[in-house]
């Protein structure tokens, strides 16, 4: 807990509470995005792992659904709450670090600066409003940094167990947790202070805790041909130097945008100060930041680095930015919060009538409830809905709970859900934007229904064709294995 309690942080603590409440309200109001609806399916089919990611995002969605129901707020509940807790941990960690060299009041101001800048990023503001694997990952990275501050600066040896717990749970959230953890290992091996810790049992005890935490995902992969490890690890071999310059530009531009421009400058200034100071803990943070950055740069030589991947570095960058004494840090933080608010208002109320090419909120969350109801009303009772896009199938399962929805794609075979028989009749829903006509190798078309549009306030996000089909056993993921998704009781 913050030294002296939260009271000494005055209106900043109240501001964090207000931001958290606003995030919860928006989480309840904005429709689920396709990936969120997909992770909800994971929560309905608990497992030690999944094709795309480890299982922690499903655990968090399941906890939220248990607490407040199978609703958008239930799926997302843990996001705003974890952002609040993570901010408290960052502020406390920054204060414990800064007070080793600054007066208490200066340390307190720097700690608040770290918390404001962290929440001023779009990556955290939007990323913790929606439920993705980055949501629990961010909290785990923050918890690991908090434990390292207390272990390395506070000499609380048992905090290495917290570090190990955070590392293990972070790996259960997303495999990229290995990158900052790799930076920690480099620091332990390459620096005098790190090697001194290796002469004690505490880092090894923390490693044992981490190893216990990762058993579920390793066991699940061992039972499923290591599919998740191969899927994510397969990205390492990408190589396309002819497009490297464009990918590098996207990487830099994406981070300027997701951090928000002014906060990005503070992050860059913080990294520079870490290099200037080069005390033991500064070097540790540098290793945990620069090793992932090097990996992302290497990856950009051959493929696109998704803008959300480096967001896991933001807690460490916020700690570094706590040292940056530029007077306009409040402007930077509030500008980032304002940009986040604009995106959220557009997602919830669509004051700007933009085309789907310009409005990512329309593409992601626009019109799903009405669209699913319209499709369900058009299809005769007793027949399942079918989609071969995981996001479309998941949205239909959530917003048409009276229907059974079948996902016919290879990944659905990995779910422990009921299976339909080959030859079953169903109604196939295909997006015009992403799909062509039904593949006759997999679907026997019996009839065609009128098209349906997914729109918000009259602006069409996508158009969908609906086909009455008979499923062939050659459908990917079917072969008596296509997973049935039910909307569930809400």
From TrEMBL:
The chain crosses the membrane at residues 12-32, 77-98, 110-130, 160-190, 202-222, 251-275, 281-299, 311-329, 335-354. The keyword Cytoplasm does not apply. One of its GO terms (biological process) is lipopolysaccharide biosynthetic process. It holds the Pfam family PMT_2. GO terms for molecular function: pentosyltransferase activity. InterPro entries: LipidA_mod_glycosyltrf_83 (IPR050297), RgtA/B/C-like (IPR038731). It is found in: Cell membrane. The keyword ATP-binding does not apply. Residues 52-220 form the Glycosyltransferase RgtA/B/C/D-like domain. GO terms for cellular component: plasma membrane. Keywords: Cell membrane, Glycosyltransferase, Membrane, Transferase, Transmembrane, Transmembrane helix. It is a multi-pass membrane protein. PANTHER family: MANNOSYLTRANSFERASE YKCB-RELATED, MEMBRANE PROTEIN. This is Glycosyl transferase. It comes from Acetobacter fabarum.
